[in-house]
C-alpha cells in the first residue's frame, strides 16, 4: 500500500471527527463574526472593545467606573457617538446633549427616527389627559402616617428601619390606590397577601424572560416550586387587573362610582375609562391590562428607589437636609402634626425639586433609553447612522460627564438652581424620564409623589445613617443591578 493511500484511508476513518471539527470551526467563526466583529456598516463609529467590556462586567465594576474607563475616551472621536454590543446587539449610543436632542425631538417636524407606531400614538392620546389630570397628592399624603408608624415602632424598640423595604411598601400602596383604587394592604403588615404576590410578580419580571411568553412559563412551572409560586403570582395579579377593569367599567356605565371626587384625585383607570365613555378612544380589556401592569412595573422600583436615595443623600449631607426642612416649614408651618401638602404647596418647593432632580441625575433608573430605529440613513453630527440600525441615548454617560457637571459624583442640588450649571447646558443633558415624544408618561405623577413624601418626612423627622452603617462613605451594593441597597438601615429621630 502506498503512503498516499494510507493517509487517505486514515482520513476516511476519521471522517466523522473531521466533519464535526469543520462544523464547530464554522460555527465558531460565525459566532466570532456575529458577536465580536463590528458590522461593516458601523465600522466608522468608535466601538467599546467587547473583551474589555466583558472583563469589566465580570469584575462587577460599577457603571460609573466602566463609563470612565471605556466610554468617555471614545466620545471625542465621533462627536459623542459610540457603539457597544449591549444589550443584545451592536447599538449606537449618543452621549452628547445636543445630538441627544436631535434624536429625541422632531427637527423641523421631520422625524428622523421611527419611534411612533400608530397603535402607540392612539393609546398615548387617551392616556396623556388621564396622566395630566391625575395629581393624587391626597392619596399619597394619606398613606404617609401609616409608613411613619413603622418607623416609630422600630425606633421605639431601638431598632432602625430598612429604608428600601419601607419605600417599596409605600410605593406599592400608592400605585394601587392611584392606578386603580385598590388597597394592597402593603402598609398594614409585612406579610400582607398582596405584598407577597406583587414581590413575586416583580421577581418573575426581573428574573424570568418567560414573563413575556406565558405559554412557556406555564410549561416550565412544573420544574420547581419557586417557578410555580411565581407563575401563580403573575396569574393572580393579571386576574386582579382584569377584575378591577371590568368592575370599574360596569360601575361607570351604571353610574355607581362616587361622583364627588375631583379629577386630580381620581385613579388612572377611571380617568381612562371616562375618556372612553366620552368617545375619546377605546381600549380593549387586554390593552388596559397591559397598560395597568406596565404602570406598576415601570413605577414601582423607580419611585421607591428615588425616594430611598433622596433620603439617603440627605442623610449624608445634613446641611442639605436642614435647608430642605427650612423650605418645607416655610410653606407648611411647623405645627407638630402631619400636614398633607396641597398641589399648590408642592409647586412652591424649588429646593426640594432640586434635590429630587439631583438624585435622579446621579442614579437614573433607566441608564439607556429604548433603542430607536431610523427609517432612512441619517447624518447625526457628521456621523452616518445607517437606516435600520439601533440607536439609543446613554443617559448615565450624560448624567456623569465631567465636561458637563463639575464633580459629577458629588450630590449638589444647586446645579439645578435658576442660572445654575444645568441651565447653561445646550441640548438635553438631564433625562431620567427620557425626553421628547416618548418621554415617561408618569413624570408628573412621580414628581408629585416624591414631593409629598419627602416634604412629610422632612417635617416629621431628622435622619442619619447609623454609626456602623457601611454606606457612610458611599453606597455599598449588595446586588450588582440594584439602584439602592436593599439592606440599608436608616436612623430616624422624630421631631414631634
Ligand atoms: C422615578 C420614576 C420613573 C422613572 C425614572 C421613569 C423613567 C422612564 C423612562 C426613562 C422611560 C422611557 C423613555 C424613552 O425610552 O424614551 C419611561 C417610559 C414610560 N414610563 Fe416611566 N419612569 C418612572 C415612573 C413611571 C410611573 C410611575 C409610570 C406610570 C404610573 C410610568 C409609566 C411609563 C410609561 C407608560 C412609559 C412609556 C411611555 C411611552 O413609550 O410613550 N413611569 N419611564
3D structure, described in words:
With 496 residues, this protein is mainly α. It has 2 domains: 3-37; 50-494, Cytochrome P450 (Cytochrome p450), CATH 1.10.630. It is built from 18 helices and 8 strands. The protein has helices at 3-13, 15-36, 50-58, 63-71, 97-104, 118-133, 137-156, 163-180, 193-207, 214-220, 225-253, 268-277, 285-316, 318-332, 343-346, 350-362, 395-400, 443-460, and strands at 81-84, 91-94, 161-162, 378-380, 383-385, 391-393, 461-464, 489-494. The strands form 3 sheets. Strands 1-2-6 form a 3-stranded mixed beta sheet. Strands 3-8-7 form a 3-stranded antiparallel beta sheet. A hairpin with a 2-residue loop joins strand 4 (378-380) and strand 5. Helix 7 packs parallel to helix 18. The longest helix is centred in the middle third of the chain and has 32 residues, at 285-316. The radius of gyration is 26 Å and the shape is globular. The N and C termini lie far apart (103 Å). It binds protoporphyrin IX containing FE. Residues 124, 294-295, 298-299, 302-303, 306, 365-366, 369-370, 432-434, 438, 440-442, 445-446 line the site of protoporphyrin IX containing FE (HEM).
